[in-house]
Design goal:
- InterPro entries: ABC_transporter-like_ATP-bd (IPR003439), ABC_transpr_MalK/UgpC-like (IPR047641), Mo/tungstate-bd_C_term_dom (IPR008995), P-loop_NTPase (IPR027417), Transp-assoc_OB_typ2 (IPR013611).
- One of its GO terms (cellular component) is ATP-binding cassette (ABC) transporter complex, substrate-binding subunit-containing.
- Residues 7-37 form the ABC transporter domain.
- GO terms for molecular function: ATP binding; ATP hydrolysis activity; transmembrane transporter activity.
- By secondary structure, the chain is an alpha+beta fold.
- It has two domains: 7-78, Rossmann fold; 114-224, Beta Barrel (OB fold (Dihydrolipoamide Acetyltransferase, E2P)).
- It is built from five helices and 14 strands.
- The chain has helices at residues 12-24, 42-59, 70-76, 94-99, 104-109, and strands at residues 30-34, 62-66, 80-84, 87-92, 114-123, 129-133, 136-140, 151-156, 162-164, 169-178, 183-189, 192-198, 212-216, 223-224.
- It is elongated, with a radius of gyration of 22 Å.
Length: 225
């Protein structure tokens, strides 16, 4: 068995379990994890983070988990604190931080994002605006904080966009790659590269490099900074 072995004779995952057990036995009110999984391989990291989450919930303790891995932050957290150069940039639950990032830094740090630097050409109502990007106009929601004539940054997540024969933004496909459970696209809208992730490639039309298509999304699938 393992009981006769020294800690340094154990595998990385086993050493992490020993360290966690030693920390829990004193019944702390707060437990700090400082990038505990950084030296483990990818599969073991997923297994360990699930185990850490389960143990933390069963023990009922508060845990502070420091990580540069956004997938770990999303999987483990009830609330996420994003820090930039030692200063808190945003605090929120994973869904809020992901879908409503405070700025470009947060949007880029948590997941992949497309940044559409546009101009507000008109206000349709208090929350909806008409924006122009690469010479093309389209409506977006969440614009109560922007004025007509002002510049804005529109965050479009790759999985929120779709390729279609008609849609919001005319584009040309420059990359089309089958990745197993999703299709990865890169398209050019004017001079801007946009990434698109299609998680249903079996049921959607596949576009090839050189095809003309449209980037399609609804006006509430974006976030305006």
């Amino acid at each position: 068995g393992m009981e006769e072995r020294m800690t340094n004779q154990l595998s990385g995952g086993q050493q992490q379990r020993v360290a966690l057990a030693r920390a829990l036995v004193i019944e702390p009110s707060v437990l700090l994890f400082d990038e505990p999984l950084s030296n483990l391989d990818a599969k073991l990291r997923v297994d360990m983070r699930n185990e850490i989450r389960r143990i933390q919930q069963e023990a009922g303790i508060t845990a502070i988990y420091v990580t540069h891995d956004q997938s770990e932050a999303m999987a483990l957290s009830d609330n996420i604190i994003i820090m930039k150069k030692g200063v808190v940039d945003q605090i929120g639950d994973p869904q809020t931080v992901y879908y409503h990032p405070a700025d470009e830094f947060v949007a880029d740090f948590i997941g992949e994002s497309n940044f559409l630097h546009a101009t507000v050409t008109d206000k349709i109502d208090a929350d909806t605006a008409l924006c122009r990007f690469e010479g093309q106009d389209f409506e977006v929601c969440g614009c109560s904080h922007v004025e007509k004539g002002s510049a804005c940054c529109i965050v479009l997540r790759p999985e929120s966009a779709r390729l279609a024969d008609t849609g919001v933004l005319s584009c040309e496909v420059v990359l089309s790659r089958f990745m197993g459970h999703y299709q990865n696209y890169q398209v050019m809208v004017g001079d801007t590269l946009i990434k698109i992730t299609d998680f249903n490639p079996r049921t959607h039309k596949i576009y090839n490099v050189g095809d003309h298509a449209f980037v399609d999304f609804t006006k509430d699938e974006v976030h305006v900074l």
